[in-house]
Amino acid sequence: MRSAFLSLVLLAGCEAPRQVAGEQAATVESPCSTRMFEGSRFTVCPANGAPIELFTSDAAGTPLRSFAKLEQLLGERASEVAFGMNAGMYDEEGRAIGLSIEKGEQLHRINKRGGGGNFGLLPNGVFLVRDRGKAEVVATSAFESGDDIAFATQSGPMLVIDGKLHPAFEPDGESRNIRNGVGIAPGGDPVFVISEEPVSFGKFARLFRDQLKAENALYLDGSVSSLWDPGNGRRDALAELGPMVVAFRLAESAPGREGPARP
After folding, report:
1. pLDDT in tens, 173-196
2. What is the domain partition of the chain in residue ranges?
3. pTM value?
4. Checking DSSP bridges between strand 227-229 and strand 234-236, what pairing results, if any?
């Protein structure tokens, strides 16, 4: 999520320009597609059962800050990326300041304090992935630690809580921004969304509840919201990022998975 100084930019009504870095021509089909909701455009990226991982730093512990650096870190695995998004609260150096778990290792403890900015608009929440691949969005107050949590990132505010919109949201408030978030669709699969134009919290939350039918959804960021979508030749480079989430394409040979065989 944005650092403190970026929160001030948002509150001041300023907005970072959207920029897209160059990508090679798409060679794989993208799971992401554009949808309209209440007159606004959104890009919706369902995970479709894909493995999901979170990344914050390189092997030396240096924050990655961009999809380009993440691509370098992934090496050959970069060719298996279905999509990626920024995902979670971070400081000015790009380090997580809420709960952060990578590959079962807790890098930062959960943050239960309130305060200013969007993260302090309680309830905030946690997006997590368990060892068996099950993804969940839970309010911070309901989070329970466990040895089976492989990845987790904390952000906020919650958008949808047990089928209800965050109580602080106006139907269509004056604060408008490019926003991204994640919800759990019927059946338990996570779905990630980024708006393609500035929208209010209320409209963004209703998209998850009313169109995507998510019982729980979490705000990941605004103003710096970014998408890496190789299949559509997109890699946003509008700001330095903190934690990033990546959905990897399913291996065609995985048991029970359908998909075209590769030569």
Report:
1. 999 999 999 999 999 999 999 999
2. 30-248
3. 0.87
4. antiparallel
